[in-house]
Automatic annotation (TrEMBL):
<comment type="pathway">
    <text>Amino-acid biosynthesis; L-tryptophan biosynthesis; L-tryptophan from chorismate: step 5/5.</text>
</comment>
<keyword id="KW-0057">Aromatic amino acid biosynthesis</keyword>
<dbReference type="InterPro" id="IPR002028">
    <property type="entry name" value="Trp_synthase_suA"/>
</dbReference>
<comment type="subunit">
    <text>Tetramer of two alpha and two beta chains.</text>
</comment>
<dbReference type="InterPro" id="IPR011060">
    <property type="entry name" value="RibuloseP-bd_barrel"/>
</dbReference>
<dbReference type="InterPro" id="IPR013785">
    <property type="entry name" value="Aldolase_TIM"/>
</dbReference>
<protein>
    <recommendedName>
        <fullName>Tryptophan synthase alpha chain</fullName>
        <ecNumber>4.2.1.20</ecNumber>
    </recommendedName>
</protein>
<dbReference type="InterPro" id="IPR018204">
    <property type="entry name" value="Trp_synthase_alpha_AS"/>
</dbReference>
<keyword id="KW-0822">Tryptophan biosynthesis</keyword>
<dbReference type="GO" id="GO:0005829">
    <property type="term" value="C:cytosol"/>
</dbReference>
<keyword id="KW-0028">Amino-acid biosynthesis</keyword>
<dbReference type="GO" id="GO:0004834">
    <property type="term" value="F:tryptophan synthase activity"/>
</dbReference>
<comment type="function">
    <text>The alpha subunit is responsible for the aldol cleavage of indoleglycerol phosphate to indole and glyceraldehyde 3-phosphate.</text>
</comment>
<comment type="similarity">
    <text>Belongs to the TrpA family.</text>
</comment>
<dbReference type="Pfam" id="PF00290">
    <property type="entry name" value="Trp_syntA"/>
</dbReference>
<feature type="active site" description="Proton acceptor">
    <location>
        <position position="47"/>
    </location>
</feature>
<feature type="active site" description="Proton acceptor">
    <location>
        <position position="58"/>
    </location>
</feature>
């Protein structure tokens, strides 16, 4: 059982809160403080963004965060070192690196997977690595006991869902909206219907992200999903509270955790398939 699987098992059917921040925004030392603030205030899993110069899947808020980090020269190796520093105090909160393939390809898949495992990374999500080309990286990650996290879009067909279900580990990230991160107008009923289809093919937890900005939008998603994923709103808090980023983010996450903890499933068995598979 991987660390991410164990985390979901410990939640005993309650929805997880998965939070995203960009490593190096506004600087690496503050990112470390933010990671601890996230964990201390209820984040069950931390997605740590690896800054990249062409973040095609990200909206303007996260793009600006990547630009701020890149302006300081933050690299993939810096992100791994940051994770190792986080592990000096926190050994249990899973860390998922989220980013693009180019820096990993440049480092080398085997070297990256080994270094990530040594640093305390638990999973990797590369947004531009489809199932057709993921095999070399997936093989190296699996050899090191790391989960490969996949994105599923609203337009994903059932055959592709089944293939993702065969390869994915930890959890699957359902992108609830067409577009980039930070989009709005989330339709909870549509998400619930799509999750029902996904669960016919994917038997690990499914987290829902994009379009979730506050307690009011998180609560209904928590009623139907195995995890609520929030990124752009957290990054916006960092951007708008210079000098007190950790406190601002901690307060936001504390409120979000309370909101999803109180969410009632729309159906008693709405998350059963994911729980039973663990």
């Amino acid at each position: 059982m991987t660390t991410i699987q164990h985390t979901f098992q410990q939640l005993n059917g309650r929805p997880a809160l998965i939070t995203y921040i960009t490593a190096g925004d506004p600087d690496l030392n503050t990112t470390l403080q933010l990671m601890h603030s996230l964990a201390d205030n209820g984040a069950d899993i931390i997605e740590l963004g690896v800054p990249f110069s062409d973040p095609m899947a990200d909206g303007p808020t996260i793009q600006r965060a990547a630009e701020r980090a890149l302006a300081q020269g933050v690299s993939l190796r810096d992100v791994l070192a940051l994770t190792a520093r986080f592990r000096e105090r926190n050994r249990h909160t899973p860390v998922v690196l989220m980013g693009y393939l180019n820096p990993i390809h440049k480092m080398g898949y085997a070297d990256f997977a080994r270094a990530a495992a040594e640093a305390g990374v638990n999973g990797v999500l590369t947004v531009d690595s489809p199932i057709e080309t993921i095999a070399p990286l997936h093989r190296e990650l699996r050899a090191q006991g790391l989960d490969t996290i996949f994105l599923v879009a609203p337009t994903t067909g059932e055959a592709r869902m089944a293939e993702i279900g065969r390869l994915a580990g930890g959890f699957v990230y359902y992108v609830s909206l067409k577009g980039v991160t930070g989009s709005a107008a989330l339709d909870t009923a549509d998400v619930a219907a799509k999750l029902a289809v996904l669960r016919r093919h994917i038997h690990i937890p499914i987290g829902v992200g994009f379009g979730i900005n506050d307690a009011d939008s998180a609560r209904p998603i928590a009623a139907v999903a195995d995890a609520v994923i929030i990124g752009s709103r957290i990054v916006k808090e960092i951007e708008t509270h210079p000098g007190r980023e950790a406190a601002a983010v901690g307060a936001l996450v504390h409120g979000l955790k309370a909101a999803i903890a109180g969410a009632l499933p729309l159906k008693a068995d709405s998350r059963a398939s994911a729980r039973d598979a663990e």
